[in-house]
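Input sequence (427 aa), recorded before submission:
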Amino acid sequence: MNVDVIVIGGGPSGLMASIAAGSHGARVLLVEKGGQLGRKLAISGGGRCNVTNAGDLNFIVKNIPGNGRFLYSALSQFNNWDIIAFFEDLGIQLKEEDRGRMFPVSDKAKDVVNALVKKVVETGAEIRKFSPVEKVLYDHDSKKVKGILLKSGEKIFSDHVIISVGGMSVPHTGSTGDGYAWAREAGHTITELYPTEVPIISDEDFIQDRSLQGLSLRDVELTVWDPKEKRIIRHEGDMLFTHFGLSGPISLRCSSFVVKGLKKYGVSKLLMTIDLIPAKNTEEIELDIYHLAEEHHKKIVKNVLKGYLPDRLIPILLQKAGLEDDLTFLHIPKEKWHHLAKLVKAFPVHVNGTLSIEEAFVTGGGVNLKEIDPKTMHSKIMEGLAFSGEILDIQGYTGGFNLTAAMVTGYVAGKSAAEESKKKQRI
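Predicted structure, token format:
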């Protein structure tokens, strides 16, 4: 069997690569090792699928801290607004939620998956499920891709192969790192793999005793500090305390910086702080809590602070400030109010890692981008070979940025493969 373009992997990037290649006149074969296309896509966004983000180009790149600048050339060909128009043309109406996140109006990720698969079929591409790939075939003498060998023993030939198999995160959806070996076989290097967008682990007493488990904090700021107390990164939004540490949107956004920071500085722990009231400074908070306690001077301070601070955090804050929680206003030294206010602005949590790469939402690291043409997503080492999606060393924050990167790289890889195939046919 011979086709113009083979796409390996039926995730969002592989589906988009197939659509782009087919729409530009190529005969496409999409091979998927499992029995379901778009499995990871179907569970993304809590089952609602945050397909992209409505921010401007610089905002998109800023929110892809893992080599987002590499995408400028690709985004000039197909960007987040093109993704929005693409889905609306498929009949999937989108709505904008907080921070520019775009979801289907139906709130059903399955609608997005079904629309993509339907479009793949409409372009004339052949889809083969339950077709795991054993290896990608290369002619190392001429440095050209030749096709693929399926685990069934069947060889399928093509001058263009796009590897879109994802990374190692959420392996039950099929992302088990298969593509790294194929990339290495072609001569590519793989940058160090690490978990990103992943919950953070802490062995603080208030974490281990589960006294804060399930506590959700809204509109707070979370900061990661280096050992010299220099800020590494800060994010504002929502977070969650768990039985093992920190989760929720801003915790996930900080996670890669925790992983990298622990390694860079050769330490076992890093300090993170939570600003519980970002809208006010320390002096304003000090005045607030002082006047509250003064107004209710007969009440114990623990009860006075209820409503101003999260109830379950109050005993811990008081303990860290050196205060008994049954004290009243008249029994609290003035300097303690300042100490308490500082803790509200920088509640400390020492963290010592993250969950594993398999439990992460995104895999950090991947195919070295120095070896990839940013205009086409094609290999600079092996002619006819291209990569798209999470297998590349590109990582974004949650909020539609990873899916944007996946679909943009998929589109560009598919389009460029189809155009190259046409050129060869004309020669």
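Checked by second reader. The mean pLDDT is 94.
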